[in-house]
Every structure is written in C-alpha cells, then in structure tokens.
Design brief:
The protein is 69% helix and 0% strand. It is an all-alpha fold.
C-alpha cells in the first residue's frame, strides 16, 4: 500500500502504516521494528490526546504529526528498497543487521535520527517563517515522548535483565539514559528548526545535510561509547534472549506514565 500524501496523513493512517512496519518486522525477526514499535505507542498516545482535546489547534497538530511520521516512514521505505535515505537513518537501520547492539541502543538510534534530524526539519516546514506558531505542537510531541520513555525502558528491562546497569553510562541524577538523551535531543531539534526557518533553497538543503552529518556522529557514539561502556553493553547484550517480536509487542503496548514530568 502506498503511503498517503503528507497532507492526508491522519492519525489513523499513521497508526496503520506503523502497524504494518511492526508486523512485517515481527514476522521477519527484523530489529528495525524496535523503534517502529515505540513510535507506534507514541502515535497512539498522541491520537488519544487529540481525541481528549489536549491540543490548542487539533488540525495543525495532526498535520504536524503527519509530516513528522512521513519522514520516518519514507526513510524506512527507502532503506528497504535500496534507495538513498538520510545517513543518520542509514546508521540506525544498518545496526539491525548486527548482533551486538542491545535493545535500548536500537531505540536510541531511532530517537536520535527522528528527533535530532526529523523533528527540527518538520517544525521548520510546518511553521515556515512563523516558527513560533508550531512551538506548542513541537512541545506536545516531546511531552508525549517524555511520558513514554521511562515506560519503554521499563518494558525493555523485563526482557533485558541487566539493563539497569546501563544508567551508569549516562543520565544525570535520577534520570534514565533514554530520558536524558531525549532532553538533549529536543533542545537540539528546536535549535535546528529555528535555523532552518530562515533558510531556503540550496542553503537550506546544505544545512539539513550538515544536521544529518552531526546526527550521525551522535549515532556512532551511541553504538560505540568507548571501551569500558562497550564492555558493559556486551555483558548486557549477552543476557538479552527475547525474540524480536516479543520485544516489539512490549514496546508497542507502552502507555504514558502520568506521574512523570517531561
């Protein structure tokens, strides 16, 4: 099924497209589906919040979420067909071919590409010259992610017995690594959106390429965080024996932790 035009990407169509990605990955044992499953949980939550009247401009929010999702779905389609995609997505997808990344690393690689690159580009597209118009939508998407990330890490912890050791690598205070990474990424994404909103044509394209290149460096650090951290990750990975389909099911079923703040 062809992915609908950007302007026609309703919540239901986004959810349907993501479910197809997850179902295909689960059937094939393809770990690309880990991030897709988390993204499915995020989109279902955004859709429910729209139904509950949480957004100041529901139509604009749906358009924003549709364009944001389209960047991921387009990258995933390109990867499967052998067509070019953003290099940061190429790194994230290619990691699924290797045994070593732990479940959490796969999710972080997806978050890195989708937030550090895609979110800023999307905000600049929807906002145009009036970038502040979409700040509420930008923050709403990040709020949903913030409400889900701890649940995602908790879900992964049920199938990754030593996952709690990973928070020794990153994070600050009581923050989990995935939450700390998200906070840093959302700051970067808004900075990208503001810069891109002032650019057009080739200058804008060059800036997007530069952001993609910087995002690749983050991805490489996620994959290879140094010798001591990599040794710990190897120990964690050795204890991860769940089937990919089971991991995806856990991630897709995550719901917001309303006691947390984003």
């Amino acid at each position: 099924m062809a992915v609908p035009d950007r302007e026609a990407m309703t919540y239901d169509r986004i959810v349907d497209a993501l479910e197809r990605v997850v179902d295909r990955c689960a059937a094939d044992g393809d770990r690309i589906g880990y991030f897709a499953a988390m993204y499915l949980a995020v989109t279902r939550t955004v859709r429910q919040r729209a139904i509950d009247g949480h957004f100041e401009d529901p139509a604009r929010m749906e358009r924003f979420v549709g364009r944001f999702a389209d960047r991921y779905l387009s990258a995933e389609r390109a990867w499967r067909s052998g067509a070019p995609c953003a290099e940061s997505w190429h790194v994230a997808f290619r990691a699924a071919d290797h045994w070593r990344p732990i479940y959490l690393q796969h999710v972080l690689l997806g978050i890195n590409a989708h937030i550090n690159l895609d979110l800023g580009v999307t905000a600049s597209e929807v906002g145009g010259e009036s970038i502040d118009v979409v700040r509420a939508d930008f923050d709403a998407v990040n709020d949903v992610l913030g409400d889900l990330v701890d649940g995602c890490q908790g879900a992964l912890g049920t199938v990754s017995p030593w996952l709690d050791l990973i928070d020794r690598i990153g994070g600050e205070g009581d923050e989990t690594l995935i939450r700390f990474s998200l906070v840093a990424a959302r700051r970067q994404a808004w900075s990208v959106a503001v810069r891109l909103s002032t650019l057009t044509g080739d200058e804008r394209d060059r800036e997007i390429d530069a952001v993609d290149a910087a995002t690749v460096w983050v991805a490489l650090a996620v994959q290879n965080p140094g010798l001591p951290a990599s040794a710990l990750l190897l120990a964690v990975r050795a204890r991860e024996r769940a089937e990919p389909a089971d991991v995806m099911r856990l991630l897709a079923d995550v719901r917001p932790d309303t006691s947390s703040t984003s």
